[in-house]
């Protein structure tokens, strides 16, 4: 069950699902799941981002429609790539789109993974009621254990002056050349949802 503080991430996922699958907006907002406070929060976020082409009411109507559609059988899934492609269109015209370190709503698929799926896209989809793809590697099938990930990241942070993603990739290459198998940077990022989240786990 998604945490209350991640409600806007849930709405973003449903909203983009509706856009990707061309679902018409509902004629009203389902306030049993989207409170007036949620509308105010979303409006405030959009205003702050100067997202003039996005309207909180329309977004919540689309999220409501997506939720209703997902109660029906035989629904389509939503890939992370399709999510990010649609999101890119939405944020393209925002004043700070592309600025380093700036987080815009809707959030990226990596944030959705982290907020709703503990780092796994399929788990994030399941949390909001979207069916998952039948193909693709299931979560947990990596031959690296949780201890392997933690040791790799700990060893890297202790041995390197920098803890950047690019430096980790170079470190993994060196480790492999010396016969020590380490999870690739992309594998780490997919497992934890983002590189910063992976490094946060090491520090806790």
Strand and helix layout:
Blueprint: H1 7-20, H2 36-48, H3 56-69, H4 80-91, H5 109-117, H6 121-128, H7 146-159, H8 165-177, H9 185-192, H10 195-203
Helix pairs in contact: 1-3, 1-4, 5-6
Defining key terms:
10 helices, mainly alpha, 204 residues, elongated, single chain
Helix fraction, binned, reads 55-70%
Radius of gyration: 19 Å
Spans of at least 5 consecutive residues whose pLDDT stays below 50 are 135-141
Helix-strand sequence: HHHHHHHHHH
Form type: elongated
Give the helix tally: 10
Can you summarize the main beta sheet? none
Task: Give the strand tally.
Answer: 0
Report how far the terminal alpha carbons are from each other. Answer: 24 Å
Structural class from helices and strands?
A: mainly alpha
As a percent range, the share of strand residues is under 5%
Mean pLDDT equals 84
Short synopsis of the structure:
The protein has helices at 7-20, 36-48, 56-69, 80-91, 109-117, 121-128, 146-159, 165-177, 185-192, 195-203.
Would you give an account of this structure?
The protein is mostly helical and 204 residues long. The protein is 56% helix and 0% strand. The chain has ten helices and no strands. The longest helix is centred in the N-terminal third of the chain and has 14 residues, at 7-20. It is elongated, with a radius of gyration of 19 Å.
């Amino acid at each position: 069950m998604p945490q209350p503080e991640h409600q806007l991430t849930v709405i973003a996922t449903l909203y983009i699902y509706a856009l990707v699958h061309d679902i018409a907006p509902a004629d009203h907002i389902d306030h049993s799941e989207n409170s007036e406070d949620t509308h105010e929060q979303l409006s405030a976020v959009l205003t702050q981002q100067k997202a003039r082409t996005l309207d909180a009411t329309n977004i919540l109507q689309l999220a409501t429609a997506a939720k209703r559609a997902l109660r029906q059988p035989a629904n389509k899934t939503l890939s992370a790539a399709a999510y990010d492609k649609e999101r890119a269109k939405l944020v393209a015209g925002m004043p700070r789109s592309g600025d380093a370190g700036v987080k815009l709503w809707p959030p990226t698929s990596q944030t959705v993974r982290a907020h709703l799926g503990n780092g796994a896209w399929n788990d994030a989809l399941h949390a909001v009621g979207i069916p998952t793809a039948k193909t693709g590697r299931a979560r947990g099938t990596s031959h690296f254990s949780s201890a392997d990930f933690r040791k790799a990241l700990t060893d890297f942070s202790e041995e390197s002056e920098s803890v950047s993603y690019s430096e980790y990739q170079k470190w993994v290459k060196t480790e492999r050349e010396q016969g020590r198998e380490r999870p690739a940077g992309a594998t780490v990022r997919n497992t934890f949802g983002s590189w910063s989240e992976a490094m946060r786990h090491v520090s806790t």
